[in-house]
Amino acid sequence: MAARIGVVQFPGSNCELDVIEAVRLIGGDAEILWHGDAELQGVDAVVVPGGFAHGDYLRPGAIARFSPVMSAVVEFAGQGGPVVGICNGFQVLTEAGLLPGALQKNRGLKFLCAPAELRVDSTNSVLTSAATKGSVLRVPINHFEGNYTCSPETLAELRDGDRVVLRYVDNPNGSVDDIAGITNGGGNVVGLMPHPERAISALLGSADGLPLLRSLLDAASVSV
Amino acid sequence: MIFMLFSVQVEVSLRDGVADPQGATIERSLPHLGFDGVRGVRVGKSIRFEVESADETAAQAEVDDLCRRFLTNPVIEDATITLTAVDAASARG
Q1: Which of A124, A203, B64, B82 is deepest in the core (most CB within 10 A)?
Q2: Any idea what the CATH number is for the domain that residue A28 is in?
Q3: Candidate from A59, A102, A108 with C-beta closest to B21
């Protein structure tokens, strides 16, 4: 039986169908989890996708974190379940306290929509376990508030714990320490600004998102 | 129990040391408009609401909690809270 990935849909999400398509392409099952439902329908992993949940009102992720589904996601993550937040989903996970730090407006106030080169700096997470450490992946970014920031103490913890999983080769947005993606202490919760689900076909520019999504599917398959 | 009504203004600002690209962009554009010598531009937001509470201490505690858990992201933002008791007669009017 294929592992099932639940993809959270908030009002304003706009990448959930892309994630579902990508997961199916690599042989997994995927389905929508409605933000108003307080349970995860028995899925093996959760993706919080990109978009503008609740219009990004107040701050990106500030309102989404209070959705009923997020209590279930926090509980699932606490039990070691694989959870990945992409772009707006990363913002939601920081607001929910599943990942440290915050995402500010980009340096230079530019909305960025371009391919970005990412270096895999740690394979110790559910999103990078099947990638090669040190390899460079070409994956699109598409954000206005992707400038990762955190306290010096948090940054030291992230570095010492090998928890910066992806770094930009050429920092596009001002993120501290070139951070593109981080993981929690257990390696089961990952947040990243780039969109691996938009890099699944060489014909469309890049298939470099596949090793990342395969890692997630591997992690989800463990519990099947 | 009698409740008092308070008018609340919360000013959300970026914490000291946190880069403010909006403020920096505004500051850079000012000389083009002939406003020389303007410095230290910081952009925040202002949120207003009313709260019913037993007294000012309780209202302050509630608004503090609200700001910490929702209106600000404490990693990058601070809140400045101003509470003003609303006269019940004028509130009814």
Answers
A1: A124
A2: 3.40.50.880
A3: A108
